[in-house]
Predict the structure.
Amino acid sequence: MSVLLVEAFYGGSHKQLIDLLRENVEGCVAYTLPAKKWHWRARTAALHFMHAIPESSSYRVLFTSSVLNLCELVALRPDLASLKKVLYFHENQLVYPVRKDQERDFQYGYNQILSCLVADVVAFNSLFNMESFLSSISSFMKRMPDHRPKDLDGLIRPKCVVLHFPLQFPDVTRLLPEHKLFHQPIPVSQIDIVSAPQGQERLYLDCPKATCPGEPKSQNEDERDVNSSRAASLLCLYPEPGDGTLDHKEGPRQSPASPKEAQYTQREKDAVVEQTERRQGQMKPLHIVWPHRWEHDKDPELFFKTLVKLKERNLDFQLSVLGETYTKVPEIFAEAREQLDAHILNWGFLPSKDGYLRVLCQADVVVSTAKHEFFGVAMLEAVHCGCYPLCPKSLVYPEIFPAEYLYSTPEQLCKRLQGLCKSPDVARRHHVKVDTAAYSWAALEEGYRRMLAA
């Protein structure tokens, strides 16, 4: 074993990263502590790992997150000091929000600064995380009464790199409702119509070329008539949910019939979705999902306050509140469950990844109200599942999401959600302009391998 993975808080994104590296990078061995009592892990984990990690001459690289006081560990275990030491920042304690009734504990940020000084490589999951940390060191150290060190950021910056958190996006096609199949991150400029049993035609979105039999070809029709006619032709080929022609568990089954050729514009695809919804009767309410940790830094108070306003305005919506819970859950969750009970579809952590993805695939809009976010795994997973994102115009979000998905004030968030409640089809037809593939393990693997090379 040449790569020593040490994680003092083995949960959430910390766990995901350790597991990913252990499974995909040769020569890794991991030592971890459960994700409980974060503050105590930051204070005492080094002492635990001093005993837990056996001595070995085969170690070449030490990889750990910034929860661990790396300075203490290499002092307690001098045999680890000579390794290539990589420190990964999922978050940083210099700008991490604290409750109004609490004073920021100097020790946690100080530990992270010391860890950077002894590390050989300091990696951050976003540019926002890196710059907010480095730019805050000087003001943070001014809290010392005297003998304040200077230019620490200048010592640390040359070691720093931005290496986004790597996600493994599963194929969720089988979980998607029909309207989202139009908006998958695969080229769908062409669709395939093939024959099904009893002569019924079938619509596919991932085949190279196709034709709509009997499609009007007159070039003298105006654009509206053309779109309407072509959409109607597609609509008659689009299967009703539950009619047996489309199995969401197994995906579409290809017919042996030969495809013909035709091209359909995005407007025509949108027309299919609209007419299908109308044919199904009353449009389903907007499904809003909140997939974040149940902690104060995600600002659940703002989220639930906004939804209560929507309820008071007699707007219809459905709600799924997911995410992990820890020792203490903010009181607002119990209050919100009672106030919004009639709107709730899902409430609480889903231990099954498949179940979690299924809810994301059925949702229309994913919302973040975070006061602290250095990357945002949950938001990107939801976008991968076809959700329309709404995020604060701050923190890491402008680094990842285009301006049209950002809001600046609580009033703007409420207004955006109000509009989507009135017109859910706006979110359902929209193709989110975020390249989730750029944050995949496939795209980032080489960077991680170079970083973990001895």
